[in-house]
Amino acid sequence: MPVITYDKQPYACEDGETVLQCLTRHGVAIPSSCESGVCQTCLMRGVQGRPPAAAQQGLKDTLQAQHYFMACVCEPGEDMEVVLAGADVTHLLEAEVMAKSALNDDILRILLKPAQPFDYKAGQFINLYRPDGVVRSYSLASVPRQDECLELHVRVLPGGNMSTWVRDEMHPGDTVAIEGPVGDCFYVPGRPEQPILLVGTGTGLAPLWGVLRDALAQGHRGQIHLFHGSYSTAGLYLVDELRALEEAHDNFIYTPCADEPGDDMNAGVTCERADLAALAALPDLKSWRIYLCGHPDMVDVMKKKAFLAGASLSDIYTDPFVYSMTSS
Description:
Elements: E1 3-6, E2 9-12, H1 19-25, E3 43-48, H2 61-65, E4 68-70, E5 80-84, E6 93-102, E7 107-114, E8 125-129, E9 135-139, E10 150-155, H3 161-168, E11 175-182, E12 196-201, H4 205-217, E13 224-230, H5 239-248, E14 252-258, E15 270-271, H6 274-281, E16 289-294, H7 296-308, E17 316-320
Parallel strand pairs: 1-5, 12-13, 12-16, 13-14, 14-15, 16-17
Antiparallel strand pairs: 1-2, 3-4, 3-5, 6-7, 6-11, 7-10, 8-9, 8-11
């Protein structure tokens, strides 16, 4: 007889009983509606124990990978610890600053080594805490089992509370607090022939750099197109590294983009917004997997246009970045 642990309390689940029925029978109120696995009102996540596949049908693959399930149709086959979808089950963890370097005039690469094992997926994000409690979210550019440290790309904004502290006061050897990982903008294996489109602006390249390298490392065979944009070529970064990957992998195509032409325009840089360049090059996105990261307006507009171009909403993954000139 499986035991369901919720809010630190164990509840015995009878044979043939769903997680929702078990918790409800014990007086625990769980949001629900259709009770047939359609509306997803009762969406939960297994912190310990794996939900049966039948309880995950219809969920996005990234949600399935994080053990989300519908409680109303989940008949557990083993003991499980569960939480409601969106519940915060992360904990603060210390990490040592291993390195800090410039990627361009405005963006810093930060390498962190957690004090304890840290399970994450490339493209997710963490919260970084300043000693006085100020916290900001940064996407992970590193790849598990490939990179020894967590990699962040921090854009330094004029007057930014966190980013200027990172630039001026964070040093290798320092200890910082992190929390996470969070987010579902990551690569899930299983459809190796599916074409992938990656579109990012600014430090939206960070999660895409992780997703790209993770997909290639896991043997993805379908075409992978990356469009990275900035206002000018000075805002682009990792250009040499991306071109080296393009040379090494026949299925990867890299297109750096600059919004405006200028004296710094380099050969091989497309003078166009990254999202517009992507749609012009790939007008039919049916059956594509799409990752959109960076400026929230770009992410929102491109998501709609990708859907109109044939992409399934379940195959569109987003990570919009919100910058504040006074608080970043």
